[in-house]
Amino acid sequence: MVNKESMEELIAKTAELIIKSKHTVALTGAGMSTESGIPDFRGPNGIWTKNPEAERQAYQSYFRFQQDPRQYWIERMTGTSWIHELIKAKPNPGHFALAELEKISLLKCIITQNIDNLHQKAGNKKVLDYHGNVSLLRCYSCHSRFDPDEYELEKLLAEDRLPPYCKRCNGVLKSDIVHFHEAIPADVSSASQQEVGKCDVMLICGTSAVVYPFAMLPRIAKQYPSKQKTIIVEINAEPTPLTQEGISDYIIQGKTGTILPKIVEEVKKKKS
User: Fold this and answer.
1) Could you tell me if residue 232 is inside a domain?
2) CA distances in angstroms from 160 to 74, 77, 80, 169, listed in the order given
3) What is the value of pTM for the model shown?
């Protein structure tokens, strides 16, 4: 796929597609988070590039939780962690642009790989956290989610009463983050498939589309039976496998924090 249009023409075309769409969905990835100052994991200055031991620990987190939930929680709460920095991060113009599209009822859902809660902080209400959310706890048994503030985790640590237990079924709680070797939560996976099945326009924002099963979603959108063709627009710094395989119909190359606000501006102009 080669774009012959200029960036301005592609932005105008995308705005038109969104306005005419019955169900626009956005898929977002690390490219949006890095623009909020959150480092990626495997880039030149990535968290795991600088600290390979942190990557090794990340691969063991799920097994550690299953074997010894108490120790999992102690390590999580007492060790030095990038998670604390993640919680402090703030949305950037790209996040606010998607929130504005939802506010004017043109964006129906965001499905995000990011665990940073920034879409919710920006104002989006319909967000599917495909890989979990750093700001939530999830029950291992019934999958109910809770705000950590409900559990006074520091007090539980001080009184040696970890792990926390679910208020609904008394199952053990873990972070909502989907660890390596852990399945995507069934409720999120099912809801994501439903959104992909309904969408006629899909915005791919800041994701290289190489992490599975998330990377299957654009492909499913193109092949979904009994529905009209989905138009896929990539907004990415570089081409991806979706570009190369012809899954995407268009690519607008650049930063999501720059391009998404321009799309929203064009949408408003065309609607006024």
Assistant:
1) yes
2) 9, 12, 19, 21
3) 0.93
